[in-house]
Design a protein that fits this description.
5-stranded parallel beta sheet; Rossmann fold; Helicase, Ruva Protein, domain 3; globular; OB fold (Dihydrolipoamide Acetyltransferase, E2P); alpha/beta; 3 domains; 15 helices
Length: 450
């Protein structure tokens, strides 16, 4: 069982799953904290950005993370989102993605921006809450199949510490009760308006509930107060979710017949209607806006039209925190013959707070490898770790991080759990780094297609 669990955990490990935050204490970056290693100046600059965002003083500005490949630019962007809070949306796209969609480039960017803006909605509803003391479902014959029984109604007795109440409901609620396997001893909610049933778990205080040695459901104490009460529900959606729902409600014949979309792009008037609705909710105290993070990697792949759109978007009232990342030097702005730093127009660069990253030293590479090895469940000897660190200095951090799990597989085939230097050497022979690959191409250039 444990080996299966480990395998499932490994399958879910992402490139930046170890990042928990910027690793700052009182604004100062620790050498190793929250999954981050090194890049002291960049992380401290990102910490100031987080403070500006929390104070609402980032309007009209964006962030540019500039540095060589494999220097932690994406990790810093993820860490900024983590520092802002759990509910903060984080949307990551590549600059080249906007050309591979059927939608217009500006529509792809707009939808990504709207996905990066959350709306936390507070809603009060009347619900019946209690532990199920008795339940009786009345069945009847199916109107089109006399051999099949369908629920006609349900009678449920709910108890709290202060009250007991018997409720009757129609077939919709009866279907919900059956589908969710509600039984005596369960703590449930029933929406007074819609009849929707929410099963919370088993009541630990109700003695008449059947007891089982193995039960996978959570244990809930018996509710207090009256059975019928006002409950506050808090849920977070994005502006894009609201755009899609609003647009779906005004769909045409195709939407009604097949549930599809007549058009994939969302008209500006629908978005304007959603914005006005959200602003009204905010004014009424029913909702709050959560600006998220839209991270665009390979920003130099964006063209002049996309940059113009982003420039306008930064000035809008409802805009996420826009973070661009690039590893390019002075290069042409896509769609023009003009050269600019990072391939980004100067008027956009002026609106960006630029954070630079640098290549990692041997000590930092070693610490990152330790973190990744722990995250991926790789046991590695000190000698093998030293060898990987040396290879990382000669090649790249990404290359040696990618070698960790293959080296573990080689080690296990040889019958030992811990990765040894010879396992690393064997994997290095099997997988070429960029320099080795380039050398191979030069040696076999005549045999390659051009």
């Amino acid at each position: 069982m444990s080996s299966t669990r480990d395998e499932l955990r490994f399958m879910r490990v992402g490139a930046h799953s170890h990042i928990k935050g910027l690793g700052l204490r009182n604004g100062k970056a620790l050498m190793k904290a929250d999954g981050m290693v090194g890049q002291i100046e960049a992380r401290e600059a990102a910490g100031i950005i987080v403070e500006l965002i929390k104070q609402g003083k980032m309007a009209g500005r964006g962030i540019l993370l500039a540095g060589p490949p494999g220097t932690g630019k994406t990790a810093i962007a993820v860490a900024i989102a983590k520092e802002l809070g759990e509910d903060v949306p984080f949307i990551a796209i590549s600059g080249s993605e906007i050309y591979s969609s059927e939608l217009k480039k500006t529509e792809v960017l707009m939808q990504a921006m709207r996905k990066a803006i959350g709306v936390r909605i507070h809603e009060f509803k009347k619900v019946y809450e209690g532990v199920v003391a008795d339940i009786d479902i009345k069945m009847t014959r199916h109107p089109y199949n006399p051999y099949q029984q369908v629920p006609e109604s349900v009678r449920i007795k709910l108890k709290t510490r202060n009250e007991s109440r018997t409720l009757t409901a129609g077939p919709a609620t009866a279907y919900e009760v059956i589908a969710k396997g509600v039984r005596v001893g369960d703590v449930i909610w029933i929406d007074a308006e819609t009849g929707r049933v929410t099963k919370l778990g088993r009541c630990i205080d109700y003695e008449e509930a059947p007891k089982y040695d193995i039960e996978g459901e959570s244990k809930i104490p018996m509710p207090d107060g009256p059975v019928l009460k006002d409950k506050e529900f808090i849920y977070t959606v994005t502006l894009h979710d609201l755009d899609v729902r609003m647009h779906s409600s005004s769909g045409g014949l195709l939407s009604l017949l097949f549930g599809g979309r007549e058009e994939k792009e969302i008209p500006p008037d629908v978005r304007q209607e959603v914005d006005e609705l959200v602003k009204r909710w905010v004014d009424e105290g029913r909702a709050e806006i959560i600006p998220g993070v839209m991270f665009i990697d390979e920003a130099s792949a964006l063209d002049i039209e996309a940059f113009s759109f982003l420039g306008r978007a930064m000035e809008s009232e409802l805009a996420p925190i826009i973070i661009l990342a690039t590893n390019r030097g002075i290069t042409k702005i896509r769609g023009t013959d003009i050269e600019a730093p990072h391939g980004i127009p100067l008027d956009i660069l002026d609106r960006l707070m630029i954070i630079t990253t640098r290549k990692y030293n041997s000590e930092e590479i070693k610490e990152i490898l330790k973190i990744r090895a722990k995250e991926e469940g790789v046991k590695i000897s000190d000698e093998a770790l030293d060898l990987l660190t040396k290879i990382g200095l000669e090649t790249s951090l990404r290359y040696v991080v990618q070698m960790l799990t293959p080296a573990q597989i080689v080690a296990k085939r040889k019958g030992h759990e811990e990765v040894l230097p010879e396992d690393v050497e064997e994997v290095r022979k099997l997988f070429a780094d960029v320099k080795q690959s380039t050398k191979y191409l030069k040696e076999h250039e005549a045999e390659m297609l051009k």
